Amino acid sequence: MIDQLYRKAVLTVSGQKQIESLVRSRGWSVAQRFVAGESAQTAIAAVGELAADGILSNLDLLGEFVASPEKANEFAGQVLHLLDAARAEGIKPYVSVKLSSIGQGQTVDGQDLGLTNARRIIGKAKEYGGFVCLDMEDHPRVDQTLEQFRVLVGEFGAQHVGTVLQSYLYRAEADRASLDDLRPNLRIVKGAYLEPESVAMPVKADVDANYRKLVYAHLKAGNYVNVATHDETIIADVQHFVLAHGISKDAFEFQMLYGIRRDLQKELAAQGYRVRAYIPYGRDWYAYFSRRIAERPANVMFVLRGMLKG
Ligand SMILES: Cc1cc2nc3c(=O)[nH]c(=O)nc-3n(C[C@H](O)[C@H](O)[C@H](O)COP(=O)(O)OP(=O)(O)OC[C@H]3O[C@@H](n4cnc5c(N)ncnc54)[C@H](O)[C@@H]3O)c2cc1C
């Protein structure tokens, strides 16, 4: 409950314009702990560093809730550029995209622009032998994201597009089961947004229990699972579960965020698990950064100290 109150307080305060402009102007040096620079080149350099430790990458150009079709198309163009830049470096591109950043909810020529741009991005990723994960955002977007995911898997195949389920949502298990026929590649996360109790579990222990349930159910169904968490207890439980059920290490991977628990990422990779780091980059880092601060009380002190140092 305290975790929930803390998270709510940080996300509410960070939503205030004065706080945003203060952190934007003084917080970049601190944000760099979680964000791999501002350009595709700096993010691609991070891919190389992680690869040296046996860690795979998932590139994410930061940005969300784009208000105009022009901005959405511009953003999609930058993601296409990222795919080209990765390929030029000999990297099979694995990227994450928020549909709200490429026009979801805006209709152009009778089509949802998010879907149109997702087709452009996944089409190119597929051509390059890559993969696109549709990040999950706040709860009003879940229905449309899952509907669009279904359409995109039909067009490009589950080996080129995946999506995310959040264990804090009451609906998550029903959503997981409803997607089973697609044999989907799903990333399971706890959930990072400020959500009302009517849709999201307020007690952390329930979110954690539901997390395990979702991972185990998806593995048992024979589908590929991205176990995206830094929670060591859950990671250990998943290791026991796969051993007990004779599930191979190729049937899932662990995923963590850039700048968080690199030690654990390296350790798991050294043990022969597939491990992938989510590498965010770009100028629009504020919302992503606020969610990372909201996840851990110690991070607020880290930010304040960093900003005071200047
Ligand atoms: C690869 C990946 C992709 C994600 N994609 C999405 C998405 O599409 N949609 C979405 O809603 N959420 C997403 N998330 C965020 C997720 O929902 C959680 O908010 C986040 O992962 C923290 O939860 P946790 O599972 O690590 O567990 P927690 O119980 O929150 O944390 C467990 C432990 O991890 C460490 N830790 C966790 N967070 C931090 C932090 N910020 N700084 C330092 N240490 C930390 C601490 O040691 C903590 O005790 C993603 C997370 C990952 C790893």
Automatic annotation (TrEMBL):
FAD binds at M136, Q166, K190, G191, A192, K204, T229, H230. Its EC number is 1.5.5.2. Pathway: Amino-acid degradation; L-proline degradation into L-glutamate; L-glutamate from L-proline: step 1/2. This is proline dehydrogenase. One of its GO terms (biological process) is L-proline catabolic process to L-glutamate. It is an enzyme of class 1 (oxidoreductase). InterPro entries: FAD-linked_oxidoreductase-like, PRODH_bac_arc, Proline_DH_dom, Proline_oxidase. Residues 45-303 form the Proline dehydrogenase domain. Gene3D superfamilies: 3.20.20.220. Keywords: FAD, Flavoprotein, Nucleotide-binding, Oxidoreductase, Proline metabolism. Binds 1 FAD per subunit. GO terms for molecular function: nucleotide binding; proline dehydrogenase activity.
